[in-house]
Amino acid sequence: MPRPAATNDARRLDHQRGGADRSELSRTANASRSGPRARLTQNDPPQPRERGRLASRPAGGPPKRERCRMNEDTGADYLGPWELSECVDGGGVGVVETSRCSALAEGDVVTSFNWPWQTHAVMMGSSLQKVDSQMVDGHLSYFLGPVGATGLTALLGVREKGHVTKGANQTMVVSGAAGACGSLAGQIGRLDGCARVVGICGSNEKCRALVEDLGFTAAINYRSEDVSARLKEICPDGIDVYFDNVGGSISEAIIEQMNRGGHVILCGQISQYNKDVPYPPPLSDKTQEILQSRSITREKFMALSYMSKSEAALFELSQLVKSAQIKVLETVVNGIENMGVAFCSMMKGGNIGKQIVKISD
């Protein structure tokens, strides 16, 4: 796991001060063009120079949203595009190694949404959040998944936009169900009272994991099965809640079978990230008519809009994970040199659960 150092300085630290091995974006990649390329460079390990800055050694969990940062327009107000020749960054967790920040001490565990993809980093204390490792029983990578932003997105998405009611015999469908967020959202839907939770994913192995390990009612392999036909078979009473991680034709097939007054939780649209379209991508006229005629809500969701509820939500997620009411799946790759490989594999569906890149112990 990484170790950082911290500062009270409120200015953003120039990534060029990064150290040791680091990953830089060496070529722009607009949607559906030749694709991104990164290079691994080596520098001397950095030392905190100005007051409040820190040196760190991280572990990262590159989320799919980082694909949007390879476009000039990310489609999200809270995300800026990566700049050419700058160190790539994303979610990370680590341990403070050296600190000149009064709020952080050596040995503190910290997380950040903008952790440089490098073995050591100098970061500002204001950009880091101190966390308690007891919340995850020492599994620090869980701060990147179920007890972090991913867990918040799943829990608050279901609670704020899903309108799940115990005893209402509701059916929930989750696309991208074997990914970091989808695997949590389905379990939360079940715990909150959905009578039936169906996951859609891309392999038989993932289907087995959803049903046998995570307690989904059923799972559909969209690569080998007819999604529409299987949904009619598994969800004879229609669909009430849809947690949408993928968009595209799969989402339109699901919406077609939704009940009046249903709710689409618009979390992600990974099938559209390589296309030059706005977010959220436009729907077909037929699907738009279904939403309107059946009074189905479909709203973009961001956990950042509900940060006043984050502390209580993270505590609840911690308790659910510790008690094994929520099971955690991870795909772990070792070494910063494999960061790009892990990212591309994730974008192709190679991960089950949260994709983690472990950079140090």
Features:
2 domains, Rossmann fold, alpha/beta, Quinone Oxidoreductase, Chain A, domain 1, five-stranded antiparallel β-sheet, 361 residues, six-stranded parallel β-sheet
Q: What report would you give on this structure?
A:
GO terms for molecular function: 15-oxoprostaglandin 13-reductase [NAD(P)+] activity. Keywords: Oxidoreductase. Residues 9-25 have a biased composition (Basic and acidic residues). InterPro entries: ADH-like_C (IPR013149), ADH_N_2 (IPR041694), ER (IPR020843), GroES-like_sf (IPR011032), MDR_fam (IPR045010), NAD(P)-bd_dom_sf (IPR036291). Its EC number is 1.3.1.48. With 361 residues, this protein is an alpha/beta fold. It folds into two domains: 15-145 and 328-358, Quinone Oxidoreductase, Chain A, domain 1; 158-304, NAD(P)-binding Rossmann-like Domain (Rossmann fold, 3-Layer(aba) Sandwich). The chain is 23% helix and 26% strand. The strands form four sheets. It has a six-stranded parallel β-sheet with strand order 12-11-10-13-14-15, sandwiched between helices. Helix 1 (149-162) crosses helix 7 (310-322). Residues 5-19, 24-38, 49-53 and 271-275 have low confidence and may be disordered.
